[in-house]
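Sequence in, structure out.
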Amino acid sequence: MLREDLVFHQGMNEPVQCRIHAKELHRMLRGDEALPTNPTHRAKQQCFEWLVEMFSDEDRDIPPFALLRQEANELFPRLSDRAFKEARKSAIERTGRHDLAKAGRRKNQISK
């Protein structure tokens, strides 16, 4: 069905074949906007997606803020400190992992 929806007519009997990248389709289905054109904004969006993927995995050990920021800096060199903080905050809200937003050491799951 997607293949049929991607063909439209520009003029009189001139079919135009449109294509969409898998990442753009995934982003569109999740309700996110298309990738921004500004390189620093793009780095923030990519960092957000990376963090959402990481935070969504309940079994994954999330590194502390400083180490996470350092790793993000290596992956996204154009990412500013402010953009990282905003991406992290948005990722926490998206995934519902509010335990990551609290300061201090995270509680041990075994002792609960």
